[in-house]
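One example copied in:
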Amino acid sequence: MPVYEYHCPANGKSVEVMHPMSRTVASWGELCDLGEIDPGTTPADAPVERAVTAGMIMASGNDTVSLPMGGGCACGHGGCGHH
């Protein structure tokens, strides 16, 4: 199951949670319920934004599998001397 990071502009906090790709999380209250965290004084209806991250996939049995990342430098064509 994918791990997503959400940010709440109302309180400045970011939270990582696991949920199916088909699920959408729109509010701080939903995010806190899903992440099993205390919402504190932030209103439950405060909007949250899903952050763009490389992400991870959680396999069954709670093993963590990282998604592949590009190796080497950021030049993209091998002309930098690192290849």
The CA atoms of residues 10 and 46 lie 7 Å apart.
